[in-house]
Design goal:
Blueprint lengths: L2 H20 L3 H8 L3 H8 L7 H11 L3 H5 L7 E4 L5 E5 L5 E4 L9 E8 L4 E4 L7 E8 L1 E6 L2 E6 L3 E5 L4 E4 L6 E8 L5
Antiparallel strand pairs: 1-9, 2-3, 4-11, 5-10, 6-9, 6-11, 7-8, 7-10
Helix pairs in contact: 2-4
Length: 190
């Protein structure tokens, strides 16, 4: 199965799931998104690969991120996104481009951090409140992310997200500094 086939299947599965969770009929979603009913049927049956614009309209109509519609690894509290699985949304001949590295549906405060861990260094974190999500992208070195005592190798160019109510730690077990960007989404106080 090619990456495009996997993406098409994932979009079909996730669109059906979110439409069902929102209780939208095909006609209701079509009206909300400004996308034809026939196009939605084709997408849900994995018979077409829609444009980025159509995918964005559907995500907006469902109130989810485009990442959620395209995500094909759900279920684990940790999701790694290797560089070759980042979604390129657009590019032009001048060399400009965007890549959706990783996203989440979390609500509430959002923090963006820059980290640098020297070789042999690390940082352990107590569990955050339920619903807290962290997203990170390693730009240099190789991070070892530990969640619930399970280690995940996160090399440069790879992104990850995890539910931060689990005990977690960041370690540099390599010989060169690790640099990463991290966003922390904290649930609102209810």
């Amino acid at each position: 199965m090619t990456d495009l086939d996997q993406l098409t299947q994932s979009l079909a599965r996730n669109l059906k799931r979110w439409r069902g969770e929102r209780g939208f009929t095909l006609d209701q979603l079509a009206a909300r998104a400004g996308v034809s009913r026939g196009m939605i049927i084709q997408i849900e049956q994995a018979r077409t690969n829609p444009s980025v614009g159509t995918t964005v309209k559907l995500a907006d109509a469902l109130g989810v991120s485009i990442t959620t519609l395209l995500d094909y690894e759900q279920g684990s509290p940790v999701r790694l996104v290797p560089a070759d699985q980042a979604v390129r949304l657009w590019s032009n001949d001048a060399g400009s481009a965007t890549k959706l590295l990783v996203g989440t549906e979390a609500r509430g405060p959002l923090e963006l951090w820059s980290w640098r861990l020297m070789p042999g260094d690390g940082s352990r974190s107590d569990p955050h409140p339920e619903g807290t999500v962290e997203l990170l992208h390693v730009t240099a070195g190789a991070l070892t992310l530990v969640v619930d005592d399970i280690s995940y190798a996160v090399p440069a160019g790879t992104s990850a997200t995890f539910e931060a109510h689990h005990p977690h730690a960041y370690r540099n077990e390599g010989a060169e500094p690790v640099e990463l960007t991290m966003a922390v989404s904290i649930p609102p106080v209810r």
